[in-house]
Amino acid sequence: MRRISWIIAMVLCFSGLLTACGPKDAESVVKELNEVVGELESYKGSGVMTLYSGETPQEYKVEVSHQKPSYYRIALTNAKKNITQIVLRNDDGVFVLTPSLNKSFRFQSNWPDDQGQVYLYETLVRSIIGDNARQFADEEDSYVFDVAANYNTHSLVRQKIWLDKKDYSPKHVAVSDANANVVVDVKFDTFEFGTKFEKDSFDMQKNMSAGSGETQAPEAGSTPTINEDVNTPEVTVPEEQDPGVDVSDQPELGNPGDEVGGEVSPDDSAAAEEGASSELGDFGVIEPTYLPNGVNMKGEPTIMETEDDYAVMLRFEGTYNYTIIEARPQDRASSYAATTPVDLGFTIGMMTTELPQTLTWFDEGMEYRITSDNLPVAEMVQIAASMQDQSGK
Question: What span, in angstroms and rounded, lies between the C-alpha atoms of 286 and 312?
């Protein structure tokens, strides 16, 4: 009897070992992911992000660094144009840095706690843990989760996340729309936990000067332009003028962001454009390829030009009424109100918190602004994405 009892005990023990070493199910992986995040001190990763929201796919190099409790550094580099923008969070706030323009914008924001990014590990794990209807697959060297996408645009619905079986580091993320078309694809080349960072790795001045090592650093002796407690300049769109209205008291066209009134005659517009082109180089107007349902462009672009500035305004009307302003940013002080950062995929934009809402972003030395009283943020993001990497008309 003792021999039989011993054999049974050995069989049970062996069966337990086989169970422990066998394939994991979704629940056990989720439990261990919770433990990984709870013990997370730091990480650093890099890879390639491809966006399919425009007419042609756009590739960006992504570098992401995190140090507990709330230090972040994200560098997004346009792979074709070698232009980098850096998003930074440290004890002083959240910064959006554009080293090539020698500009920095600071927010008082809880980012990324209140807004996830597809390349942040915590965001991915939070999506997996929070979706009770998650789908799970066990592949050769990866655990794959298919879960709901929780981002700031309704065009992103589902996402598949590949995690390395060895340490649960992210390998691949594919975010899809309602038609199962991949809109954002991120492939990580490297990702390591427990990274030891230099003391100034998350310092604003250090990152402005370094520019991720891929952009032109500020000239010697120059000081970065820092817009504190940033928002976007207010834009007042001129209303339609009745034939009998005297427009002599309307404000003249001024700096982008100033009140705008009246119209510019074709002759004056041509002269203004010619003069501005000689001063600022070619300025092609970028029109969005995406328009919300029931929206059309109204008339021709309006040129807003002074001795120091040159900008173009596009008007849209219908289901939503909004304007788009494209300008060359000048090194000048700006009047700003409270904003919050918005992930546009290819860069980080700035959204005002009060009506009319204005979304501002920078790309290739240009400043873009969408302003509206009723256009949803998700629509603004999709419009901005459709303007990326287009040739001016």
Answer: 10
Rounded to a whole number of angstroms, the distance between the first and last alpha carbons of the chain is: 91
Q: 253, 213, 218, 210: which is closest to 235 by C-alpha? A: 253
Q: Read off φ and ψ for residue 97, nearest 5 degrees.
A: -110, 135
Task: Determine how many CB atoms are found less than 10 A away from the CB of residue 313.
Answer: 22
β-bridge pairing 103-107 and 225-227: parallel
As a whole number of angstroms, the distance between CA 104 and CA 208 comes to 8
The count of other CB atoms within 10 Å of the CB of residue 208 is 24
- Name the region of 108 (left: φ>0; alpha: ψ -120 to 50; beta: rest): beta
In this structure, are residues 377 and 357 in contact, taking their beta carbons and an 8 Å threshold?
Answer: yes
Q: Which band of pLDDT confidence, cut at 50, 70 and 90, is reported for residue 234?
A: very low
The answer to whether 148 touches 127, Cβ cutoff 8 Å, is: yes
Is the Cα torsion angle 159, 161, 174, 139 positive or negative in sign?
Answer: negative
Distance from C-alpha of 208 to C-alpha of 223, rounded to nearest angstrom: 10
CA distance to 37, 137, 143, per residue, from 161 (Å): 16, 10, 8
42 phi/psi in degrees, rounded to 5: -165, 160
Strands (E), the chain: 42-51, 58-67, 71-78, 83-90, 93-98, 103-107, 135-138, 142-148, 158-164, 170-176, 182-193, 225-227, 295-305, 310-318, 322-327, 339-343, 348-352, 357-363, 366-372
* CA distance readout (Å), 376 to 241, 255, 350: 27, 26, 14
Helix/strand/coil for 27 = helix
How many other CB atoms are found less than 10 A from the CB of residue 201? Answer: 18
Residues 6+ apart with CB under 8 A from 178: 155, 157
Residue among 152, 151, 159 at smallest CA distance from 182: 159
Give the pLDDT band (50/70/90) at residue 33: very high
Rg (CA), the chain: 25
Reported as a single tens digit per residue, the pLDDT across 94-106 is 888 888 778 787 8
Contacts of 157 (CB under 8 A, 6+ apart): 148, 149, 176, 177, 178
Q: What are the two backbone dihedrals, phi and then psi, of residue 101, each rounded to the nearest 5 degrees?
A: -100, 0
The two tokens of residue 379 are: 């629509």
